[in-house]
Write a structure and sequence with these properties.
Number of helices: 8
Helix content: 10-25%
Largest sheet: 6 strands, mixed
Number of strands: 20
CATH topology of one domain: Gyrase A, domain 2
Strand content: 25-35%
Keywords: Aminotransferase, Methyltransferase, Transferase
CATH class of one domain: Alpha Beta
Strand order of the largest sheet: 11-12-13-10-4-14
Oligomer: single chain
Catalytic activity: N(6)-[(R)-S(8)-aminomethyldihydrolipoyl]-L-lysyl-[protein] + (6S)-5,6,7,8-tetrahydrofolate = N(6)-[(R)-dihydrolipoyl]-L-lysyl-[protein] + (6R)-5,10-methylene-5,6,7,8-tetrahydrofolate + NH4(+)
EC number: 2.1.2.10
Radius of gyration: 21 Å
Protein name: aminomethyltransferase
Shape: globular
GO molecular function: aminomethyltransferase activity; methyltransferase activity; transaminase activity
Length: about 375
């Protein structure tokens, strides 16, 4: 899933505490304001640090606290039709135990948020970004019929166990969870608590997201971190991992000023919904623009960039083709896995083909860059044997 970059996000309002606030501090976390909460960006000590935490997750398993995310449960008569009028999703193809990526769009087709939708018995479970969850709740309540119930599950925490050894560690405590494949979920018992576990995440690695009662969060975090494969990981490594995985970050790589088509998120518009209204498609906010862009293209596209040298380009860096400014970086940093700087940017569509040579201006210098396919580091999702 997505959120604003922890180091850049500044809050003026009083900050809330996560259910694991004391647990993080006891582990030596450096806490920062993020999405209305104090959250761990990294941990101190002989192991801690963003690069060490990043590499550990790539090689073993890291535990991320993502309890700032909004967990919503929708139910009521005519639920599927009501939700399809708000989201560009095809719920007829979403079966019990499956989850899917979708988008909340404004009337002009701009992205208000990206989110996950799961089919529960007689309900739909949504996970939305922490920085936008209150706006999302307001948008959904206004758009959905009055007989649709929206339950904000604010007494639940959300933990993400990510990495190639995540399944090995989790199956010691949860029987049957190893049978889940990517984007599937189930109800399980963990340490005597009823939990929902999805095989998903935001790192590009195999892993799980665990929705659990907030009062059980510390007990379960201790249980998982007692496994030799697992260490607590902060938001800094979460951001560098998702950057290597080529995953967009809401508020940076997409916003109300961007459409999902120019952002490369056409997969968030299910196939039936891409057709014109007269062919049974459309019917969601911004559909006219989205369908037009699918058919006619967009003036700019979101691309991956690999930069020469070791100096990273950050958000806001300008992209050039010769003397002409043709784009702007939306996310960027140094890749610990590749040992080189990488970035993602919007560029004019004629400069978007893979292999195109461009320049990025960093600290007054032009750095050579090449348009590169994403993900930068291959995904390692478990889709079954």
């Amino acid at each position: 899933m997505t959120d604003h970059d922890a180091e850049d996000h500044v809050e003026d309002l009083p900050l809330d505490a996560l259910p694991l606030d004391a647990w993080h501090r006891a582990k030596g976390a450096r806490m920062v304001p993020f999405a209305g909460y104090e959250m761990p960006i990294q941990y101190t000590g002989p192991f801690g640090g963003i690069v060490a935490e990043h590499n550990w997750t790539r090689e073993s398993a890291g535990l991320f606290d993502v309890s700032h995310m909004g967990q919503l449960l929708l139910s009521g008569p005519g639920l599927d039709a009501a939700v399809e009028a708000v989201l560009p999703i095809d719920l007829a193809t979403l079966k019990l135990g499956q989850q899917r990526y979708s988008l909340l769009l404004d009337e002009d087709g701009g992205v208000l948020d990206d989110l996950m939708v799961s089919r529960w018995p007689d309900a739909l479970y949504l996970v939305v970004n922490g920085a936008t969850k209150w706006d999302d709740i307001g948008t959904l309540r206004e758009a959905l019929p009055d007989d649709i119930t929206l339950n904000h599950m604010d007494d639940y925490a959300l933990l993400a166990l990510q990495g190639p050894k995540a399944a090995e560690a989790l199956t010691r405590h949860v029987r049957g969870v190893e049978a889940l494949t990517f984007m599937k979920f189930g109800r399980f018992t963990l340490a005597g608590h009823d939990v929902t576990i999805a095989r998903a995440g935001y790192t590009g690695e195999d892993g799980f997201e665990i929705s659990l009662p907030a009062h059980a969060a510390a007990e379960i975090a201790d249980l998982l971190c007692a496994e030799p494969e697992v260490k607590p990981i902060g938001l800094g490594a979460r951001d560098s991992l998702r950057l290597e995985a080529g995953l967009p970050l809401y508020g940076h790589d997409m916003s109300p000023e961007t459409s999902p088509i120019e952002a490369g998120l056409i997969f968030g518009i299910n196939k039936r919904r891409r057709r014109p209204v007269e062919e049974g498609g459309g019917g969601f906010p911004g559909a006219e623009r989205i369908i037009r862009e699918i058919n006619q293209g967009t003036a700019r596209k979101w691309v991956g960039l690999k930069l020469d040298g070791r100096l990273p380009a950050r958000e806001g860096a300008e992209v050039f083709a010769g003397a002409e400014k043709i784009g702007i970086v939306t996310s960027g940093g140094f890749s610990p896995t590749l040992g080189a700087p990488i970035a993602m940017a919007y560029v004019a569509s004629q400069h978007a083909p893979h292999g195109t040579a461009l320049d990025v201006e960093v600290r007054g210098k032009r750095l050579a860059a090449t348009v590169t396919p994403t993900p930068f580091v291959p995904h390692n999702y478990f889709r079954g044997s």
